[in-house]
Amino acid sequence: MIDIDRIATFNLADAILGMRNPLESWKLSDSEWDDSETNFCIGERDLTLAQTLIKSGTDDSKFMRQIFVSMDINAPIYWWKEMDTYKVGTTANSTSTMHKLAQTPITKKNFSFDGANDVLIVSHTENPEWSMPVREVEDNLLKVLEDIRQRYLKTKSESYWRALIQLLPESWNQLRTWTANYQVLRNIYFARRYHKLSEWQTFCTMIENLPYGKELICYNGEENE
Question: What is the pTM of this model?
Fold first, then answer.
């Protein structure tokens, strides 16, 4: 499960204008704001130059680092561990598991339990006939975690708090406000667009739908489809 909200893109106009600084070709720029002055429209000449620079590599397409993006991402820890691969050019401000974990009831809405509920856990030792669906394991784990949370609230014992932290599975969802730029998103897109985690597929679809996402971030040196 992944939820992406409050998506905003900044500095597109200045980045496109600055793209022409090396050859001082500003007079050739054909991009402009729409009548409402809320949407910046990249002109045909500017788009051609932008894609030529992107095709030439990251040194020539520095303008991509000057198009900024911010979003709120609510995703499980197992996905965040992979997202944390992308550290350069990114900043994330997360909700605090350390400070907030014990303050609200622990329920299924706090986790990404999806796609594996029908899997059976089968014993191969004492009882070969024994099996249990994953959904029962999830339910039992939730009961254990909530019991530990309640005991911690009553006793304030560090032992209960540590047990709660240590037993928390990687499916725990965490909200982060995440910022990056179009070059970082380009790196992510081409590395993760075919990843088997559905969260990455959702994230890459979001990238495609950003302003000029397909034309800039996802541009592969060929004619746009």
Answer: 0.86
